[in-house]
Amino acid sequence: MNPPAESRGGTGDPEMGRPVQEPLRRTSNAAQANALFRKNLTYQKRNWKTNCCLVAFPIVLCVLLVVMQFLINSFIGDRFKCGCKDVPNSNGVGTTKQCGLQFSNADEAPFCGIDRPYPWPSILQVPSPQYRATRSTEYPDLAQDASCRSADTCATTIPYTGTNKTAADALAGYLLGTGSLDLLNPQTYSLSSVVPGTDTIPIGSLLFESAFTSPRPIYILRPNCTNSKDNFNFTVNVGGGFQLSKDFACLETRPLWRENASSVNSMLFAGYRGGNERKEVNEVPAAYDFRRTTPARFDVNIWYNETFANRTSRGPPSLMRVTRSLNMAAQAFLRFKLGPTVELPLLFVKEMPKVGTQLRLDFSSIIGPLFYMWILGFLFPVVLTALVYEKQYHLRMMMKMHGLGDSAYWVITYFYYLVLFCIYMICFIVFGSIIGLKFFRMNSYSLQILFYFLYINMIISLGFIASNIFRNVRTATAFGYLYVFGSGLLGAFFFQNFVVDLNTDRKIITALQIIPAFATYRGLYEFAEYSFRGVYMNSKGMQWSDLNDEKNGLRTVLIILFIEWVVFMLLNLYLDQVVASASGLNKHPLFFLKFKRKGSKAKGAMSASSNHTSSRRLSRNFSANSKSLTHIDEGDKRSVGLKVTERSDVAREKEVAEELAANPSKDYPIVCDNLKRVYPARDGNPPKYAVRGFSLAVPRGECFGILGPNGAGKTSSINMMIGFLKPTAGTAYIQGMNIVTDMDRIYSCMGVCPQHDLLWGQLTGREHLLFYGRLKNLKGTELTNAVESSLRSVNLFENGVGDKQCRKYSGGMKRRLSVAISLIGNPQVVYMDEPSTGLDPASRYNLWNVVKQSKQDRAIILTTHSMEEAEALCDRLGIFVNGELQCIGNAKELTARYGGLYVLTITTPQEEESEVIALAKSLSPNANKIYGLSGTQKFELPKTEVTVATVFSGIEEAKNRLHIQAWGLSDTTLEDVFIKVARGVDGGIQLQ
């Protein structure tokens, strides 16, 4: 049965080689974006409490920081500043407050101003006795063994090497000099004639030499310590009336020849270890490579230990005692060249003057990176959970099925979060600055704005990518917050160690910063460091000029954030198309190249040709023989182990569908061509055939009903047609467009009432219809009238029900709204999956009237479990069992074809039951008793053996001899047909 030739037509599609019907009134991207923007704006107005909490969150944290800063300031008080005292005036009248070192204790002294720093001797850093080099199997040429460490008598060793061993030995002999200390001259520069050493850890400046305040003695390094005068007490006048009395002790020092520089280096490496207070030390004070030194050439390479100096911070540089080792080498060369009496004195070293300071700690900068990392990180789960929520509850798919394009969805969603997060950050920065947080005030605001803007864009795009991974809101929420806290902790306790260690290769740090969390942490770390240093040193924080500092990593961070923003957005758009998700059918991975699977055109042409030939052959066979036509699907046979036989009505429908697939007609908006859906084998179970081969052609103006038991494949069939599931085989054509390749175009002419209500609880019924109406290109008065009409048609207009939020609706009201949504905008094709579920009889009857009126100019496919609804609404019915249609026809045809029985019910006294059975047999020899209880019996009478008149006359005659209390005769109902077909298929009965 072919459609009329004059009804075929449509515009051509050169790629597919087949005519298509262009959807009516396609909505522009701007109109789609406008609809989604209005919906989101209304939705967020209803969620104002949540949004206010989100924006207020950083403000609350800033207040908490201020409170903590106040507590810290209260604790510090006047403890950490230069000491002061009320000193009597010279005239004896009153007192004057004076501040200075002389009035300060050990905690206060570092904060005093010093206009004339004291000159300190240049001292060599030597290892503590327990770490000095001793004899071992690797170095047997050392004179002392490890027992000296416990006795505190270990000498110290200075390794040396050189190209000319003779010259190197001479230079090594002059390293310690031949001078003597003038004990009668208590001046610092008198120590320049000897080599003083200390194992005291240095402090950050030379305003105070820690060696003079330590209980450990200062050593005088000598080749031997046989002179008792080498142990003495020395008093130094440091000014301001202060004198320091210090013990000096002789430290025996032995040069040790090594064959080459590599041997020296190996010895130093073997002697490297952790020392007291987690300071790293080496077993030797210094090492020398005199290289090619001659009397005419000074060439030296000096090893010195800087690891103890805590140079992993970019705060004030720590002290390193290097000058004395340089002076030792230079003086040794002069003595080697000019004689042993030559002196090259290094009298003293001194710090620059300093003003008085007071300890000021900015708590917001101290805890900065980790704390602000967590504050910024909370934006990530906000994006992620919102997108996964729309996916899990199929809200995005619902919007897409009613015409919302991907581009409009991502643009509006992106700009919504961009605006929200910008407000979040503006409130954070402004309020933090108002209450005086130095983290914001010290650093350049323009730099901060640029960093936060790039971060916001990066975190939104990162949330978009992550939403492709998750399907459940709870899982996404847990991951989001674990990411926030975990990334902050990793940044503070892992990544920061690489940043602060100046010996780490900057390329490694840059590579780590490719991880978004580490890039964010590095930016916050830079702001915190500069603001803390600005407060400590009374200077500005980070400015644009600081980006030129090679130690400043913010420039790299800004570049990385920008690149990741762009890459993540492009990657999200790609994954959204190719990853199977709740956003529709996935595309081929090379779709952006307009990739076509090889052989698709040829296969389509061959399929059309074979289908056309097959339909002719089937038509001839059907005309020659009215028996059922057999078509065996080998895959289905293997899966169920039964012979699958197509009925004549199903075969006829398949012929029409195949013909229309090859030669589409605008009078048939829906054509399903052998749709199949197979779920793959899993956990040892065989593949699941949800839909085995669904062929159907629905003309315009028809409502086709699909009946079937639960799990028969009804919803799976509809989900394939609406783009929710991808067919395993076969296809369908909606308005002439293929659901596999043209689904995005099909959405614009389609309406869907899903099995479960997909609604926003915060939106009203009217707002839902306004949104979906705009997606269907309705505007102005036309939109208003369509919404009013829809609300009235489903009884949601009276008493302001349409203006109540959907979360207050009953189940029946939500169902009626879903039906109204599916019909608004005059879609050409409508799918209704059990639309009357949960409705009371009055509402159900009204809903039926709405569907009847709406089917005049469109094709509707409806699934239901209500036989009454099927009879009232559907022009044709198909009973779906085990994933395939078992029969097709209108209600009367199906009852006539599969019914063929009358049901006779008779109620008599129980003792007359046998006579009633004889009565039924007299009416029809093949009468079958199907029920009997307490005198009430039911019989099935074949229509071919009885007539209604025969039954009536027989009952009237029987009343003369039987006590018939009640009786009735009924025809077979559609429900009886449904049960018979379902049971027959499950029992292996072939339906003809």
TrEMBL record:
Pfam families: ABC2_membrane_3, ABC_tran, ABCA12_C. GO terms for molecular function: ABC-type transporter activity; ATP binding; ATP hydrolysis activity; ATPase-coupled transmembrane transporter activity; lipid transporter activity. It is a multi-pass membrane protein. The chain crosses the membrane at residues 52-72, 370-389, 409-437, 449-466, 478-496, 508-532, 553-575. Residues 1-24 are annotated as: Disordered. SMART domains: AAA. Residues 670-907 form the ABC transporter domain. It is found in: Membrane. Keywords: ATP-binding, Membrane, Nucleotide-binding, Transmembrane, Transmembrane helix. GO terms for biological process: lipid transport. GO terms for cellular component: membrane. The keyword Transmembrane applies. Belongs to the ABC transporter superfamily. ABCA family. CPR flippase (TC 3.A.1.211) subfamily. PANTHER family: ABC TRANSPORTER A FAMILY MEMBER 3-RELATED, ATP-BINDING CASSETTE TRANSPORTER SUBFAMILY A ABCA. This is ABC transporter domain-containing protein. It comes from Physcomitrium patens (Spreading-leaved earth moss).
